[in-house]
Specification:
Blueprint (H helix, E strand, L loop, with lengths): L1 H22 L2 E14 L1 H9 L6 E14 L4 E15 L7 E20 L4 E17 L1 H6 L6 E16 L4 E16 L5 E16 L1
Antiparallel strand pairs: 1-2, 1-8, 2-3, 3-4, 4-5, 5-6, 6-7, 7-8
Length: 207
């Protein structure tokens, strides 16, 4: 399944680059996601297993996305994120407990709010579905060896943000993203969901 998703993204990029030669509405972005695991079964499970209970769970990982605007202000996007989840507790070293690989597919809208000779600025909003591959970290597996496998499942996401151009084709942006990432515990009906709040900072290229 992961190979199929990667192949699908490559095909999407190639098709977008060909189409963008005619209308110039194709974008590629890459950056770093900062944020935290706010709640859900994922946080409840780690709170129950770990002692002392962590104050919070931080997330920092790379991400990339591609967008194609079929009209000037509305388009489709595909993005991938790697989200390692680590504990935060004063006086203790961070412990990585979970690794999430998330693929998003949805719609993206942009609104131009400023256009000068020096730069352009856009307001962004988007939403869609995600598909999450969740896996316990090796460190956590050593602490709790008897763990069931987590099967991937479908969730959803949404974001708002802005980006500005500092050249004709290059831009920088930041978003506020809510990701509801869900998995299913093998051999049970337990939904292993997590609620993430992320702040991606990224560079982008317009073709």
């Amino acid at each position: 399944m992961r190979k199929a998703l990667c192949i699908g993204m490559i095909v999407f990029v190639c098709v977008g680059l060909v189409v963008s030669e005619q209308n110039g509405n194709f974008e590629i972005q890459a950056g770093i996601d900062f944020g935290s695991l706010l709640g859900g079964r994922q946080r409840e499970a780690f709170d129950a297993f770990l002692s002392p209970t962590p104050d919070s769970y931080s997330v920092t990982g790379p991400g990339a996305s591609i967008r194609y605007y079929f009209i000037d202000s509305l388009g489709v996007e595909v993005s991938c994120m790697y989200l390692p989840v680590s504990t935060k507790l004063k006086g203790y070293e961070p412990l990585r407990v979970l690794e999430a690989q998330v693929v998003n597919l949805g719609l993206s809208a942009r609104l131009k709010v400023s256009d000068t000779d020096i730069s352009k600025m856009f307001f962004d909003i988007g939403a869609g579905l995600n598909y999450s591959f969740l896996e316990y970290s090796d460190e956590f597996k050593h602490m709790v060896p008897e763990l069931y496998e987590i099967k991937p499942s479908i969730g959803y996401y949404g974001y708002v943000g802005s980006h500005f151009y500092f050249g004709k084709t290059m831009y920088m942006g930041v978003n506020l993203v809510y990701e509801y990432c869900k998995g299913n515990i093998e051999e049970s009906a337990i939904r292993f969901d997590g609620k993430y709040l992320l702040f991606p900072v990224y560079l982008g290229w317009h073709f």
